[in-house]
Design brief:
Elements: E1 2-6, H1 10-21, E2 25-30, H2 36-44, E3 49-51, H3 56-59, E4 64-67, H4 76-83, E5 88-89, H5 91-96, E6 102-107, H6 112-125, E7 130-134, H7 140-146, E8 151-155, H8 158-161, E9 171-174, H9 189-197, E10 208-212, H10 216-221, E11 230-235, E12 244-247, E13 250-255, E14 258-263, H11 272-287, H12 292-301, E15 310-315, E16 318-322, H13 329-338, E17 343-347, H14 360-366, E18 367-373, H15 378-384, E19 390-394, H16 397-407, E20 413-416, H17 429-446
Parallel strand pairs: 1-2, 1-4, 2-3, 4-5, 6-8, 6-9, 7-8, 9-10, 10-11, 11-12, 16-20, 17-18, 17-20, 18-19
Antiparallel strand pairs: 12-13, 13-14, 15-16
Length: 447
């Protein structure tokens, strides 16, 4: 059987290595230049590849194509494959064929990485034989070659879900659905939501769907009457029928598989969005038999991924928080809502058509200074000019941090939570967050 793999990043190279391990005839093609680390893996395995082009004759000679999530269906090579009726699948779909491990799969517009990492942490700390893979940045296919795990916790983007057909999750988690990546879905929320709901396809009565019962887009898109698995809705707003909810600083679970209360008071996660993430993670852990004590200890010891409401320093009783991953308005809303101290807010970048109106009341209540960090800050100044007492602007993150220090007083929080993409001044949100951390370190060292 001939397999053509489009894209030679983490997922593509992992799929190539698995295909070779299973005795398939593999060819890898990438329209861009392949990173040295991946080129070395392919060369070491003697897997033929090309970069900077797609040789259509060779690709279309395949029985099946595995494509990178970043390649849209409208790409010419995918259109040609469709004409020849060559199946196009994702790396996750391919990997799922070669393991009997159970999958705990997480998707959602916001919160999926935090929820994925938290579930993995809770399960691993409890002693389960568990692997981590997917959109988090690790190839499931490559892990399946050795297939050493009983469970895999897998973060899934909508792009990965689009090319999954027979794959089945044992536990599926959907954190929320808000507008994002709509250019890939013909600017249709219905099509984007349907993509997210593919996470529950093929489920049977012994499988579980953990989802946010407060999310209107999930409610519209989820075909509950025809769902084959068991639903576990969670809520902060008292949604009817919810099985998981908060009481004070504790999570209450009221389901057939478990009835009880988990103390979250020692968790370091900030904000309502992380309460949602924690409810989902606790439900998944309880489904797999993790004890209350193990969960509570895991919540206490969990360290989130960088750039997500990450405390990076304290100087002169001012706390600096890096939330560079907050590239949309909803993520910033949760950050502002979750912080109780007065805020010096650093925001801005490449606006993605943002509607900032939902942030106005929170900004009026909590934000004393807005430092606009971007090349074009007019929209931010226009929206918040009447509700935030002091507004400044800069294109230097070092100056933004120094200015924030001078305008803050003991007990304040300096929050980088941009609501925008980073590409006007930085390579990506990680680069922006790292530069913020470096600027804060200079202040902390001088305190």
């Amino acid at each position: 059987m001939k397999i053509a793999i489009l894209g030679a990043g983490e997922s593509g190279v992992g799929a190539a290595l698995l295909a070779q391990a299973k005795g398939l005839d593999v060819f890898v093609s990438d329209m861009s230049q392949i990173k040295d680390q991946y080129k070395a893996k392919l060369a070491t395995a003697a897997i033929p590849f090309e970069e900077g082009t797609h040789t259509l004759d060779r690709i279309l000679d395949a029985n099946e194509i595995i494509k990178s999530p970043g390649i849209p269906d409208k790409a010419a090579v995918i259109q040609e494959a469709a004409k020849k009726q060559i199946p196009v699948i994702s790396e996750i779909e391919f990997a799922g064929r070669y393991t009997d491990a159970e999958f705990i799969c997480i998707t959602g517009t916001n919160g999926k990485t935090t929820t994925t990492l938290l579930i993995y942490h809770l399960l691993k700390n409890a002693g389960l034989n568990v692997g981590l893979a997917g959109n988090i940045g690790e190839s499931l296919a490559e892990k399946v070659i050795e297939n050493r795990h009983e469970y895999y916790v897998v973060e899934l983007s909508s792009f990965q879900l689009d090319n999954m057909y027979q794959f089945k999750a044992h536990i599926a988690v959907l954190t929320n659905i808000t507008p994002d990546h709509l250019d890939r879905y013909e600017y249709s929320m219905e099509k984007y939501a349907a993509s997210k709901l593919r996470i529950v396809q093929n489920m049977t009565g012994s499988d579980f769907f953990i989802y946010n019962a407060d999310d209107e887009n999930i409610a519209k898109a989820f075909d509950s009457p025809n769902f084959g698995g068991t639903t576990i809705p969670f809520t902060l707003q008292g949604a009817a029928g919810a099985k998981v909810y908060f009481e004070g600083q504790s999570i209450k679970v009221d389901a057939k598989f478990y009835e009880g209360t988990i103390d979250t008071s020692k968790s370091g996660l900030i904000g309502k969005h992380n309460q949602y993430n924690t409810m989902a993670a606790v439900a998944a852990a309880k489904l797999l038999g993790v004890s209350d004590e193990q969960i509570e200890k895991g919540l206490e010891t969990f360290v989130n991924a960088e750039h997500r409401l990450q405390q990076v320093g304290v100087a002169k009783e001012v706390t600096y928080i890096n939330d560079s991953k907050a590239t949309n308005v909803e993520a910033v809303w949760y950050a502002l809502e979750g912080i109780k101290q007065p805020i010096v807010w650093i925001a801005g970048g490449v606006d993605k058509g943002n509607d900032y109106s939902t942030l106005v009341d929170l900004a009026r209540e909590k934000v004393k200074v807005l430092v606009c960090l971007g090349k074009d800050n007019e929209k931010l100044k226009q929206v918040f000019g009447r509700v935030i007492p002091i507004i400044a602007e800069t294109t230097s993150i070092d100056y933004a941090v120094r200015l924030s220090r001078s305008l803050s007083t003991p007990g304040d929080v300096v929050l980088l939570s941009p609501a925008c993409a980073s590409f006007d001044l930085f390579n990506n949100y990680e680069h922006r967050g790292q530069r913020f951390k470096e600027a804060v370190e200079k202040i902390v060292l001088k305190k």
